[in-house]
Amino acid sequence: MLSTKLIQLIEDHWEAIVTRVLKQIREDEHLFHIRKLPDSELRLWGQNFLKYLGHWLIESNKEEIAHLYESQGRLRYQEAIPLHECVRALALLKQALLVYIRDAGVAHNIVELYAEEELELSVGRFFDSALYHTVHGYEGELRKAVHLTATHA
């Protein structure tokens, strides 16, 4: 059973985690394009992951996740953000979340430690799914653009 205490902690402190990720994005020289996006857009992106984490991990269905993150991938393609930057930004968000869980230090006994590890596994699976669907949406837009270019050439 996932620890609702840990999930609530993340949902309550999503802003601090996203702020950390925004700082990393802004300072990463390899994220040239994505760091040009406005803070408001990047905050909303991070918020969609973290503020509703319990929903994503417990209540949502695979189709809902697929739809949301494929649309994120399409949007990033339309914004001319390179795919590798999208992947890196997701990795930074996942890493910041896991660091936050560890730094919170809420595991005081073996049961809480187990709950923390279980949450980390669930978060990993969720981010893997979100990454897959982001790439899938991005590639779909890329294929459409290539097809349009080929038919108009």
Integer average pLDDT: 90
Order of helices and strands: HHHHHHH
The whole-angstrom Rg is 17 Å
Oligomer: single chain
Helix content: over 70%
Q: Outline, from the CA principal axes? A: globular
Largest sheet, if any? Answer: none
SS summary, helix count: 7
Would you identify the regions where 5 or more consecutive residues have pLDDT less than 50?
none
Write a short abstract of this structure:
The protein has 153 residues and is mostly helical. It has helices spanning 4-12, 14-27, 39-50, 53-59, 62-78, 83-104, 110-152.
Notes on the protein architecture:
- With 153 residues, the protein is an all-alpha fold.
- It is 81% helix and 0% strand.
- The longest helix has 43 residues, at 110-152.
Write out key terms for the chains shown.
153 residues; mainly alpha
Please give the structural blueprint.
Blueprint: H1 4-12, H2 14-27, H3 39-50, H4 53-59, H5 62-78, H6 83-104, H7 110-152
